[in-house]
Specification:
mainly alpha; 3 domains; three-stranded antiparallel beta sheet; 9 strands; about 60% helix; elongated; disordered C terminus; acyltransferase; membrane
Length: about 325
């Protein structure tokens, strides 16, 4: 009886947690819906008097709005990819691993299994990266998300504002969402500003639209600043071919830690997320190369292009030279 109550309580708590996880998304949706009403009706229809200006404002606005909503939708509802079945332990291996009490033997068992897989990264102490909750050998750049309760390929972070894990399957969409969000806020602020001034100095009548126009500018500027900082940070990560997790903890390879282990140069780093088809770069359509289980590494490319090694040396020297100033700026 007690066990039944505990299971029911646990299930109820999980259900409540899943519902609460949608609150940040609901907040964003409500703000966007209000911004649509405030801009289209209170600003363009009521406040703007010139017909040509109305048409231009509304045409550009709706183009940005469609891409903004489209990329947000894709960021939310594109499910994170899990590792292929071959990375999971077989029932026999799992049973032997769990029954084995000697850590060194367990470590050797994982090494034997990993030899059959395209795995090149290790833990800090040199062991094979193993998830004891999913019972699988983690592919390179794969991490376990405690919120999603699963291992996610090329995991970047879990974002509460989209209630989803950002990783290999939707990182392109997330970057596009940030970019179109910045443009959306910037466009609203730029076109509303002159009417904000007119309301402020009293050139326009004190109507209901005044509140919406004034508040619209403040909200657009506030979101623009915060989104621009986040977008700038992810552009820097993209230029170095890093995830958020790798920026805080450098990946460890067979040869040791290497913070630039996946850095192939700006163009190839960009193509690792957006692909080589330029027609798809602005569209939220999947175009990232590969399957998310293995990635080209700098060490392999250096043998083909020795300039990459020199480039890293120059980058490290530049970072060392500006290190104290950079830290003080942060």
């Amino acid at each position: 009886m007690r066990r039944g109550w505990k299971m029911a309580l646990s299930g109820g708590l999980r259900c409540c947690r899943r519902m609460l996880a949608w609150v940040p998304v609901l907040v964003i949706v409500l703000v966007v819906l209000w911004s649509y009403y405030a801009y289209v009706f209170e600003m363009c229809v009521v406040t703007v008097a010139n017909t040509v200006e109305k048409v231009i404002y509304l045409t550009v606005y709706h183009a940005l709005f469609v891409f903004f909503i489209w990329t947000y939708w894709k960021s939310i509802f594109t499910l994170p990819h899990q590792p292929h079945q071959k990375f999971f332990m077989s029932y026999g291996d799992k049973e032997r691993y769990e029954n084995e009490e000697r850590p060194e033997v367990q470590k050797q068992m994982l090494l034997d299994i990993a030899k059959k897989l395209p795995v090149y990264t290790r833990t800090g102490n040199g062991a094979v990266r193993f998830c004891d909750r999913c019972h699988l050998i983690k592919p390179d750049r794969c991490h376990h998300c405690s919120v999603c309760a699963m291992c996610v390929l090329k995991m970047d972070h879990h974002c509460p504002w989209v209630n989803n894990c950002i990783g290999f399957s939707n990182y392109k969409f997330f970057l596009q969402f940030l970019a179109y969000s910045v443009l959306y806020c910037l466009y609203i602020a730029a076109t509303v500003f002159q009417y904000f001034i007119k309301y402020w100095v009293g050139d326009l009548p004190n109507t209901r639209s005044k509140f919406h126009v004034l508040f619209l500018l403040f909200v657009a500027c506030m979101f623009f600043v915060s989104l621009m900082i986040l977008f700038g940070y992810h552009c820097w990560l993209l230029s170095r071919n890093k995830t958020t997790l790798e920026a805080f903890s450098a990946p460890v390879f067979l040869s040791g830690p290497d913070k630039n282990g996946f850095n192939l140069g700006f163009i190839k780093n960009f193509q690792q997320v957006f692909g080589e088809n330029k027609r798809l770069w602005l569209l939220p359509i999947g175009s990232s190369p590969g399957d998310g289980h293995s990635f080209p590494m700098r060490s392999m490319n250096e043998s083909q292009n020795p300039l990459l090694a020199n480039e890293e040396h120059w980058e490290d020297n530049e970072e060392d030279a500006r290190g104290p100033h950079h830290l003080s700026f942060l």
